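Hello Y.,

Per our agreement to keep a running log of every chain we model this quarter, I'm adding this entry. I've kept the format consistent with earlier entries: sequence first, then predicted structure.
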Amino acid sequence: MKTKKNPHIGSDFDDFLREQGVFEQVERASATKLIAVELQVHMQGERISKLEMARRLKTSRSQLDRLLDPANESVTLATLERAAAVLGKRLRVTLEELPA
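Predicted structure for the entry above:
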């Protein structure tokens, strides 16, 4: 009995996501989650509460919760830059070559 060869062997996960048509969506969601987690880690490291962070950003606690929500993909770059600055950080966004 001959088994069917797996077409994904030898390809990477990015290729698989592209084949499924979800690469951009997954990449955007993972970037959003990563930034939200990084902001929370830096807040904890600096011992800045959510209430204090919201005060420094001149916003509400509920707005800050939306900013820190890893599922929220509608956060603007300007808001992320402000949050990074409050933590003494700089947000960097880069352009990379697309794989061939």
